[in-house]
Amino acid sequence: MNSNETVTEKLTINENWCKGCGICVKFCPKKVLGLEHDKVKIVDIDKCIQCGQCELRCPDYAIYVRGK
């Protein structure tokens, strides 16, 4: 893991790859993600159902759903 990664039990986000397009935020059915300083951030990981929409829709491959 590098310092520009957020790793949780459910998601890994590589901020270096994120271009801040917000597609993952729009497709998340539980509003787990948000944008801060033009990068995706986890707003409420407890709501994550690991549906995979964020990973599937991210054009930059910046999000990985763990343990799905």
From TrEMBL:
GO molecular function, one term: metal ion binding
Gene3D superfamilies named among the record's database cross-references: 3.30.70.20
Cited InterPro entries: 4Fe4S_Fe-S-bd, 4Fe4S_Fe_S_CS, Fe-S_Ferredoxin
4Fe-4S ferredoxin-type domain segment(s): 9-38, 39-68
Coiled coil residues, start to end: none
The entry's keywords: 4Fe-4S, Iron, Iron-sulfur, Metal-binding
SUPFAM superfamilies documented for this protein: 4Fe-4S ferredoxins
Pfam family for this entry, one: Fer4_10
Entry-linked PANTHER family: ADENYLYLSULFATE REDUCTASE, BETA SUBUNIT, BLR5484 PROTEIN
Protein name: 4Fe-4S ferredoxin-type domain-containing protein
Native organism: bioreactor metagenome
